[in-house]
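Example record used in the benchmark description.
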Amino acid sequence: MGTQQITAPPCAQPAGSGVIHVNVRHTAGFTVIGNHLAQHRGLSLVAVGLAVHIQSLPAGAKIGIKRLAERFPESETRIASALRELEASGYLHRSRVRLAGGRIVTRTVSYNQPGVDAATATPPPPRPARATARPPSPAPLPPSRECPPPLSPPPPQPTPVPQPTAVLVPAPTARTAPPPPLPQPQALTPELQRAAAAILADLRRHAPQLSLSEADISTLTPGVAAWLERDTHPDALRHALTTDLPVPLRHPAKLLRHRITALLPPPLPGARELEAVRPRTIVIPLQNCDRCDRAFRSRHSGHCRDCRTDLPTVA
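Model output (structure tokens):
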């Protein structure tokens, strides 16, 4: 191929226990990878390997998270984290694109050199064609006095079909209105603040995607304290914050802020509110018989059942 390859010199072998290169010149089926990617100090090995795999794929290949998880032994969580690393380093760019038919797809652009605009990048120059000997042109014929044959009209050219143009749409998580305020407790005591901060810091044990910084924990602590102030069990709060997380999770702090605000339970009802729900027991007072002084229950004073004469007798 016409691509120049830079390899280690075969005669320069290290004297110690370092690596020894045995290089074979590739003539087909290879991909050129820059040392800025292969020796990147800020990327993990999974991200470097994933970038090499993506750059070796042909244009139009599917590189979704589920497809990559089927291809490699790494989990979807590690692959999603590696893709975010490549996006942050400039080797990858993903955007949501609406096609002409209305379907929304994810467009992925891979860069073998970060910081290069896709519109200004120039494709590799084509290989020069081999020079071939041209056959000798025939000798010109003498001019003839006969009338030349009539020229046939040129064939009609096909009308070019306009190609569908992709329309960029904002991401589904884009927000046009400001987010609602974070819930605040009525009294943020030191004990309540420590318990809320501990629950937020402990979330990464149950969901590694929810690794928060100290600034994020300090911002979200009043909202979690409002949950605890309303007698919410820590397990119920943890379940509400870690269940059904999106993949990939781009902004953990924003997701937790939304769930803390939107899923805030109401305060527990007090004894006065529950009195109206409980059935009332009607108690008939005790009365003393006017004749025998026996106690009996009745709303009115008088005689007991044995002393009453108005009751019918059984024959």
